[in-house]
Amino acid sequence: MSFNTLKSLVMPKYERLLPRLFPGAVRIEIRDLQGAAFWTIGEATSANTGEPDDATTESAAWAEFCAGVSRRQLENGEVQFRMAMFSRSQGEFACLVVTFDTRQGIPLTTAAEPLRRAFVDASAFLQEEIELQSECNLLAAELTERYEELNLVYSTKEVEYFDERQDALARLVQNCVEYLDVGLAALICRDRGLALHHASVAKARLDVEQVLEHLGAAVYDRVEAQVSCVVVNNDDDDERALALPGRSENLLAYPILDDHGTAIGLLAVVASRNAHTFSNGDRNLLEVMAKKASRIIHTHHDSLTGLMNRGGFEASLVATLSAARSNNLQHFLLHIDVDQLHVVNDLMGYQEGDNLIRRVAKVLRGSLRDTDYIARLGSDEFAALLCNCTTTQAHEIAEKVRDSIRRLSVVSARRQLDVSASIGLASLNSDTDGIVGVMGSAEIACKAAKDAGRDCVQVFEEDDTTLVRRSVEIEWIGMVQQALREDEFVLYCQPVMPLADESQPEHFEVLVRMRGEDGELLLPGSFMPAAERYQLMPMVDRWIIRETLNSLGASWSTIAATRPVFCINLSGQSLTNAGFQAFVIDELNQSGIPPENICFEITETAAISNIDEATKFMNALRKIGCRFSLDDFGAGLSSFGYLKVLPVDYLKIDGSFVREMSIDEVSLSMVKAIYQIGRTMGLSTVAEFVENQDTTNLLRQIGVDYVQGFGIGKPVPLVQILQGLQSKAPAATA
Q: Count of alpha carbons within 13 Å of 494, Cβ hemisphere only?
């Protein structure tokens, strides 16, 4: 802590107390180790500034007066007493000096013990005050640094769509320049074809092109090999010769990691030699931003191969189709399926299967052009978009890919397995209706290649595209409608357990499954997208509400004592559906279930997208006692302002933060921030995707009210939940 801070914040409180401890003193001072006085009570003299009264006085030795207190006689008749002051962080940092005038008759020879006690008391409370102030200053500095870190993170948005990714990453790189006040920032992921940089007009006295060349080569290799940060601040840094040979700039570079902890790129900032020295705070900030970049990249990339995932690829297809219509261009889509991957997994293990998938991805990168898009769609499925090529060229490229994969093999100590792939080829041009049709066409052609014996290329006939697309879509629509007519949906529940106060009743989230043609239960991810796309969600939501309330009504008399709360999800389509509000109220009245035992969950996106309808619906249902939960809260940082409008009872923290909070400081900070917001507004918080005890313990420390996830309990049939509640009811009643 600086002496100026001590003078302004600490000492004014003791200007009346210290003179009472040292009655008769003409001067009380605190001096630094060089003897300069920076705080004084009493008449100012030359001694106050640390200047000697004369040579004799200055050379006079301090004599021990009593334990810890030394004494010096001045030629002007004054006598000074001094005690050293210490702090835990600095050691001896100053001394307390008290001056008396012997000409006033002070009996100093008989006052040794009272004077010693006065020094001890004064030194004790001053040192304690200084320590407290130092700790407060350190905490303030830490909070300021954390505030800057969160500002930097929050100003870099997450992305929902692939075409936002490049903009978000570009903004992230620009933020690094602005917040760290450096000349240049760059993000490079060689295998993913990402190379972004931003230079400050005011700060960049750099040869940007040469620096970028070093970042993409020597620096990249160092970061990738070490999987840790590289810092170059001084001319004699060992890293300078390895990462920036022949350059004078300062450098800070952090690896961008995938889900397996492998470096897939780097985020680096560079400053002129005398403009910026990178500190530990800078390292923390850049580490946070590297993690942020990783999340943005992985939003639309497959973590195993580094290729685009289905979402990113579909977005690229949409953009390519739009360009094809505008410019009358011809493209081709490849659907590539590795033949019998399950055989590799079964005979040699999933690790070998994963290695094979990585090798196939590498083959695709090497076989296709730089202008082509490549994606991994599923476990053994890949896709490639061949831009601006004829049918003949596309077929030749497909055959090249097939032949390259055919050259691979999987070898173990006991056996060797050959590898092959079936490839479907479909055209994409100005006449293509949409990406669903062309992707379906390529997939059907791929299945035809498998039926033809595998390890071959099959071209889809253009005339059948519309028919195939419609048949696939109608098949899903028909299955959902059939399930509604014939009650082929099945209700499941997942427990939501109280954490902060275990005396609170259990909650259960109602989930749904659909029976397939072979009786297999299908998860929502397989049929809900079709139901949402074709506006079937109000019908699905009605079925879930009716059947849930009927099932609860039949058992309520035996489970009411356990006070369970059942949470039912609602789609945004239902909120705007005419008559839906009246339907819910009628079903509640007929069931006999107390409304306070029913909670409706609405996603953040649905609530904000339909804010007026959502508010009206929620207010009407809350009037009769129903509760509401805002699901996926914080996913887009867009809902904070709407909390004042939306009448919710629970905030369900987005699972992407909860899942990573034990390993990611930013995710942990977000969970804490959402909990604090909920607490301030009198709302309960629910953490989903709780998968292990470490996460549960962290959430308990924070104070989160409820937890949900596979680490708490997996979804089971509703009937099983009701049976369990019935078995608990007698104990609850007793």
A: 19
Per CATH, domain 310-460 is 3.90.1150.10: no
Phi-psi region of 42 (alpha: psi -120 to 50; beta: other; left: phi over 0): left
The architecture that CATH gives domain 162-299 is 2-Layer Sandwich (3.30)
**Dist. CA 97–CA 80, nearest whole Å:** 7
Q: With beta carbons less than 8 A apart as the criterion, state whether 644 and 604 touch.
A: no
Q: Which helix (H) or strand (E) holds 670?
A: helix 665-680
Using DSSP's 3-state secondary structure scheme, residue 367 falls into: helix
Contact assessment for residue 524 and residue 512, using Cβ atoms and an 8 Å cutoff? yes
CA distance 256 to 264: 6
Least confident residue range of 568-577, 622-631, 713-722:
568-577
Element at 406 (helix H, strand E): helix 391-406
Which overall architecture, per CATH, does domain 475-728 show? Alpha-Beta Barrel (3.20)
pLDDT reading at 17 higher than 70: yes
Residues β-bridged to residue 27: 42, 99
Confidence of residue 110 (pLDDT cuts 50, 70, 90): very low
Q: What's the average model confidence in pLDDT over 640-667?
A: 86
* Amino acid, single-letter form, for residue 308: M
Gap between the Cα atoms of 513 and 124, Å rounded: 70
**pTM score of the predicted model:** 0.42
* pLDDT (tens digit per residue) in 465-475: 543 554 455 56
**CATH code for 3-137?**
3.30.450.40
User: How far apart, in whole angstroms, are the C-alpha atoms of residue 276 and residue 390?
Assistant: 54
Give the amino acid at 257. Answer: L
